[in-house]
């Protein structure tokens, strides 16, 4: 798997450049903390995540978002910048500029999910890969989880970096199920595992979220560490702006992608 393909994997792991992807915690009830208590419902865990990262009202005020940060192949000496813009409900463009590799872009105009790079050119995503990309492009994904997944279930408990977590399985209408891990104490999502659909094949990935901080009223993780194909990637979020002015054509398909689109 070449470096370009590995970067594309990471871009899928961001859960969208880390938009509202990780939301924090509501006051814990005694039942949640008790070691012998029954597992809480997945619905309650996911709703709690929304509340502790700002709440439903705060999410509903957000119509668009611009995120900037850095990306690196850990231990490989390859670094670069990342810029992501998104608009409710599921329009997005993410641009990665990597030293020695070039520019990689991916996005959605709300219907077509696409990718274009200086190394491999443009392409339009299809099938399960498109479905995954559209979920990742969803600006308010934590709030809209009922629309994005047909079934959610708490399937167990696991300790992540010393913290007891609830393990939640989320099954979408199309594409592979995702497993998310939520800290029992804070309610924050600390880990996600999923098998990403790529032209290269199905790629198991693991992503760790940390360093949550407030950005414009919503808490977001500022460190996203991903592992795929024995490679480790680190995305560091530096700044987020909400409800900014954007060009009218911000999410139009690039010309090279538009040429591939069905007429």
**Strand order within the widest beta sheet:** 6-5-4-3-2-1-13-12-11-10-9-8-7
Total number of β-strand segments?
Answer: 13
CATH-level-2 architecture: Clam
Can you identify the CATH superfamily?
A: Lipoprotein localisation LolA/LolB/LppX
| Biggest beta sheet summary | 13 strands, antiparallel
Rg measurement, Å: 18 Å
Query: What portion of the residues fall into strands of 2 or more residues?
Result: over 45%
Counting structural domains, the number is 1
**N-to-C series of helices and strands:** HHHHEEEEEEHHEEEEEEEH
Q: Give the fraction of residues assigned to helices.
A: 10-25%
Could you list some keywords that capture this structure?
13-stranded antiparallel sheet, 19% helix, disordered N terminus, alpha+beta
Question: How does this structure look, described?
Answer:
The protein has 263 residues and is an alpha+beta fold. The chain has one domain (3-258): outer membrane lipoprotein receptor (LolB), chain A, CATH 2.50.20.10. The protein is 19% helix and 46% strand. The protein is built from seven helices and 13 strands. It has a 13-stranded antiparallel β-sheet with strand order 6-5-4-3-2-1-13-12-11-10-9-8-7. It is globular and about 55 Å long. The chain starts with a helix and ends in a 5-residue tail after the last helix. Residues 3-34 have low confidence and may be disordered.
């Amino acid at each position: 798997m070449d470096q370009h393909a590995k970067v594309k994997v990471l871009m899928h792991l961001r859960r969208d450049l880390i938009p509202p992807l990780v939301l924090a915690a509501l006051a814990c009830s005694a039942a949640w903390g008790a070691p012998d208590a029954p597992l809480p419902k997945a619905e309650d865990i996911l709703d709690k995540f929304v509340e502790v990262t700002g709440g439903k009202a705060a999410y509903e005020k957000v119509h668009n978002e611009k995120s900037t940060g850095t990306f690196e192949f850990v231990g490989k000496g390859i670094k670069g910048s990342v810029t992501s813009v998104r608009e409710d409900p599921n329009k997005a463009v993410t641009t990665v500029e990597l030293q020695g590799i070039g520019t990689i872009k991916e996005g959605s105009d709300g219907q077509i999910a696409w990718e274009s790079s200086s190394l491999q050119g443009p392409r339009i995503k299809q099938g399960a890969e498109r479905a995954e990309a559209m979920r990742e492009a969803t600006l308010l994904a934590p709030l809209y989880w009922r629309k994005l997944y047909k079934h959610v279930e708490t399937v167990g408990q696991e300790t992540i970096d010393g913290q007891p977590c609830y393990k939640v399985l989320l099954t979408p209408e199309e594409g592979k199920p995702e497993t998310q891990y939520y800290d029992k104490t804070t309610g924050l999502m600390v880990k996600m595992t999923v098998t990403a659909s790529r032209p290269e094949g199905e790629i198991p990935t693991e992503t760790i979220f940390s360093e949550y901080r407030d950005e414009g009223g919503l808490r977001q993780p500022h460190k996203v560490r991903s592992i795929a194909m024995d490679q480790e990637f680190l995305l560091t979020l530096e700044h987020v702006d909400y409800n900014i002015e954007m060009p009218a054509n911000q999410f139009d398909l690039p010309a090279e992608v538009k040429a591939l689109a069905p007429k």
